[in-house]
Amino acid sequence: MAWRRSSNWWNLTLIGKVGVFFLAIALVAVSAKESLEPQASSSQNYGKEVESNYLIRTEKSHTGGVLGYKHVWPGIRFGWKVVVGTLLGFFGAAFGSVGGVGGGGFYVPMLTLIIGFDQKSSTAISKCMITAGAVATVLYNLRLRHPTLELPLIDYDLALLFQPMLILGISIGVSLNVVLPEWLITILVIVVLLGTSIKSIFKGVDTWKKETKTKKALLDASKCLELQGRTDTPSGARNNPTETNQAKREVSVLENVYWKQLGIIATEWLIILGLQIAKSYVTICSAAYWSLDLLQIPVIVGVSSYQAIKLYQRQRVVASQGSKTGANWTIYKLVFHCATGIAAGIVAGLLGLGGGFIMGPLFLEMGIPPQVSSATATFIMTFSSSMSVVEYYLLKRFPIPYALYFAGVATVSAIIGQHVGEKVIKALGRASLIVFILAFTAFVSALSLGGVGIAHLVTKIQHKEYLGFENMCTHKS
Prior knowledge:
Number of strands: 0
Order of helices and strands: HHHHHHHHHHHHHHH
């Protein structure tokens, strides 16, 4: 009873803090209204003349000529659009944080169709929301432990292997996004996200069946012990197969972080970010541009190779797979997983996603528990999405008041989603719910992003615009 009272009090306190947070964000946004509206009104005058391509694409006429990028930023007015957008963003961030996929499939259509931003600005604000939600989720997960082992919930060794390759793939994917035609990207969006959703559903069903068998075995064991007159079986173990029967050792947040691996990832992130920022100050496709672009390869390959060698020599292990010695990392397996990380990044950069839609299912196939898979995918996604936010900020792709508001919504929603999800999973003993949430989010994203892409294609066809491949060296940001 005391625990329930403290839990209820904590929930009430959380709700109060959320309300205060929303009020503070609203005041900040309203105070910026006057400075934003003149910009928005001038943008809306020519907004009808601008046809924005899908996600991070350049605007070109049907003759193939290059048009300068012109944003469409609606003024901040707290009406039904902002209310609906806030609700959609809230639920998108909640599902995205639990599933480890970010929620970009909710954000971009909401910002484009409801709030009224152009496609590029919507993508930029979406990245701000993904980053805010991912940072909040990572901070929440720092204190949590592996569901069955004496390990942190975030697998830092797994992240160190995949995160650099994901960054490299995203860089390639963003370049391909400029070159490939919009119709091809729309098809890829639908195929990849629907494929991810279907694959995750099957994985979720398989995990559900295993959990059911485990729960039944625990129930049968507890009944046998009761018949023998023993009552020392923990009650939690009867209903929750996602946790061990032994009480876990309490550790501090500082002890729950692998600082060496985190330091390597952060250093690599800073170097790549510096190269990306430097690229924005040189002429595209110039010798300096390609030199800066190629310099990230030795950095990224060096970091992943360092971790791959450590895993091959068994000096480090991915212990979250359920064994103290970890999996047997052969050269073939290491090359395959590194190549998969690059492919996931290419898809993420090409489609404007955070990478969680690809990393999550991949980790599940590797035998990583759903809780660890979601937490690690979000941890990796934090670095890739935050890099995009910095680049978009330098390009002035989003209005800061709107970005702050929706980032605040994503932050609060991610924390609440993590807290509620953790309680539900513990109560039901069903970690497979995370896999089903991932599948649901991917399915909704396929419908929403695919629908927006098809709508843009129809508009371009009606205006007889160019639908072929583009020249990356002639586009303007």
